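Hi R.,

As promised on Friday, here is the backbone we talked about, encoded as structure tokens. Could you run it through your design pipeline when you get a chance and send me back a sequence?
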């Protein structure tokens, strides 16, 4: 895992060097600057709902057919075939950026930490890389670079609601310091209530009172897509979308990464996300009470998928 794509210890150069060392033999298909050969480790970089593979999925090339110009990748014991025109969806995965690894874990991680990528040497990024390793972490670099990263704080403020959480467990007469800039979250829905009280109200009722949320509906194209794929496949898609787009502590382009379009060019789950306020981390906190600034737990991801599937089920049954 490395902070950057470019440079001597960026993913592009490391992937080429590691491929030459670990898998030097054999013919392959060339596309987008990569040579894909049998036994190469690859990563899917785009969601492909037809093939049911998603951004960040890692597999191994099982075979390359030079005559038909196609190859087969094994993802978790499932074979997926790509023709040469679809290889833009794959990259070599001997090395990956720390950003791409958010939400994933590996038994062993080797992470270069050098001043070559000082622009990306930030405490939160290094922390993310370190915590990807389940058993062994090997850091290769200099003390100077590591020290620079540890001292480089790019995120200083966290809205944790800690004071309000402490009030739940402390005695009623315990003194709780007031913030110099006290800001309570209030929602107007007939009457003003605290955020905590508002969250206790039925989610469906709260969503129905929002003109923005209630305007989202599944189209005929969405319903046909769901009928063709089946609810089990849609649920799997939803789980992958949440894992890839929302589970990281700092999702890429958070707030704008969920398209407002359904099938065929988008996905019904995107519409469901906007309808249920699960489209970004800010909405997850405001509407569901799930804090920002940390990775989603498995239970939180399961909860979000359950909310999405209940909304989709109601939409399908309403016809």
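Update: got your reply. Pasting your designed sequence below so it's all in one thread:
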């Amino acid at each position: 895992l490395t902070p950057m794509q470019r440079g001597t210890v960026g993913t592009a150069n490391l992937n080429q060097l590691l491929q030459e060392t670990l898998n030097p033999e054999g013919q392959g298909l060339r596309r987008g600057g990569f040579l894909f050969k049998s036994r190469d480790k690859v990563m899917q970089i785009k969601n492909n709902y037809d093939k049911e593979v998603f951004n960040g999925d890692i597999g191994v090339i099982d075979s390359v057919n030079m005559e038909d110009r196609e190859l087969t990748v094994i993802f978790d014991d499932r074979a997926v075939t790509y023709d040469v025109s679809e290889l833009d969806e794959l990259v070599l995965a001997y090395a990956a950026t720390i950003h791409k690894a958010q939400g994933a874990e590996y038994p062993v991680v080797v992470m270069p930490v050098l001043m070559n990528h000082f622009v990306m040497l930030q405490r939160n990024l290094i922390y993310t890389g370190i915590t990807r390793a389940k058993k062994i972490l090997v850091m290769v670099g200099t003390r100077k670079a590591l020290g620079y990263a540890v001292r480089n704080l790019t995120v200083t403020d966290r809205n944790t609601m800690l004071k309000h959480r402490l009030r739940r467990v402390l005695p009623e007469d315990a003194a709780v310091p007031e913030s110099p800039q006290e800001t309570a979250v209030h929602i107007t829905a007939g009457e003003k209530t605290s955020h905590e009280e508002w969250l206790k109200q039925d989610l469906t009722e709260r969503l129905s009172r929002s003109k923005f949320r209630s305007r989202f509906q599944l189209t005929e194209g969405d319903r046909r897509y769901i009928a063709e794929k089946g609810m089990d496949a849609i649920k799997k898609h939803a789980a992958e979308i949440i894992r890839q787009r929302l589970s990281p502590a700092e999702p890429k382009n958070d707030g704008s990464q969920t398209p407002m379009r359904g099938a065929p060019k988008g996905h019904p789950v995107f519409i469901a996300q906007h309808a249920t306020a699960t489209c970004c981390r800010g909405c997850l906190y405001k509407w569901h009470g799930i804090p920002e600034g940390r990775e989603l737990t498995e239970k939180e991801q399961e909860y979000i998928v359950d909310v999405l599937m209940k909304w989709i089920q109601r939409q399908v049954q309403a016809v």
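One thing I noticed while checking it: DSSP finds twelve helices and eleven strands in the chain.

Thanks again,
M.
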